Amino acid sequence: MLLGVDIGGSGIKGAPVDPSQGQLAAARLRLPTPQPATPAAVAATVAELAAHFSWQGPIGCGLPAVVRHGIARTAANIDPEWIGTDAGALLSAASGCPVTVINDADAAGLAEMCFGAGRDQSGTVLLITVGTGLGTALFRDGRLLPNSELGHLLIRGRVAERYASAAVKKDQGLSYRKWAKRFERYLQRLEELLSPDLFIIGGGVSKQFERFAPYLQVDTPILPAQLRNDAGIVGAALAALDIENL
């Protein structure tokens, strides 16, 4: 078993994971993301989560940032103090456990490619997590190309995640039909750049896939994520098994 932790803009979720089955081995715990989400504050929350499960083994953690060799290079929806922080070392010290850190969308993508909608899919597959922001995980023939961060593309002069995320839909009171038109423009931009073989839509909005999918007019097939909000937890745990390849 491994402990998977998914750090989001509004909540930090975690649970023990059976990596052979891609399933949670216990009910997940969700704690509010500290505001501001500084490294020290988030590390304390991750330690609290680990203590809740009396955890003493490896931990995999998804972080909303570009992560290279355990070091955060950007800070999306968390405090800018993360930039340059050795996130792996910080979270390990706080929890007392070995911690592997990976980009949060990449974590969700790993889970979906191993156990969900992307299983046995070849070619170019792009998972998009739709939540506080827009995260992306890019795969070619099943292999992750880490830290794609395509939620920061410009759409009509605006950063995509400030134009078509679930948070924007909620904040602006958009109907699924109106929001889908924005999201469609984003998908079309991704098609222009990558010519993908499959889109997988993850994040909380995936539970409402049938409500907006009919409004999306794109050439690429689209599937909803199967692991939904558990994908980030499961994928973070999987990353702890494969740190040398990240």
Give a verbal description of the structure.
The chain contains seven helices and 15 strands. The chain is α/β, with parallel strands linked by helices and 246 residues long. Strands 1, 2, 3, 4, 5 and 8 form a six-stranded mixed sheet that branches. Strand 2 and strand 3 form a beta hairpin. Helix 1 crosses helix 2 and helix 3 (104-115) packs across helix 7 (231-239). The mean pLDDT is 95.
Describe this structure in a few short sentences.
With 246 residues, the chain is α/β, with parallel strands linked by helices.
What is the count of DSSP helices, taking H or I runs of 4+ residues? 7
Distance between the termini: 20 Å
* Averaged pLDDT: 95
Helical content stands at 25-40%
Strand content: 25-35%
Quaternary status: single chain
How would you describe this structure in keywords?
single chain, 246 residues, five-stranded mixed sheet, 15 strands, globular
Secondary structure elements and pairings:
Blueprint: E1 2-7, E2 11-18, E3 23-24, E4 29-32, H1 39-52, E5 59-63, E6 67-68, E7 71-72, H2 87-95, E8 99-103, H3 104-115, E9 124-130, E10 134-140, E11 143-145, E12 154-155, E13 158-159, H4 166-172, H5 176-194, E14 198-202, H6 209-212, E15 222-224, H7 231-239
Parallel strand pairs: 1-5, 5-8, 9-14, 14-15
Antiparallel strand pairs: 1-2, 2-3, 2-4, 6-7, 9-10, 10-11, 12-13
Helix pairs in contact: 1-2, 3-7
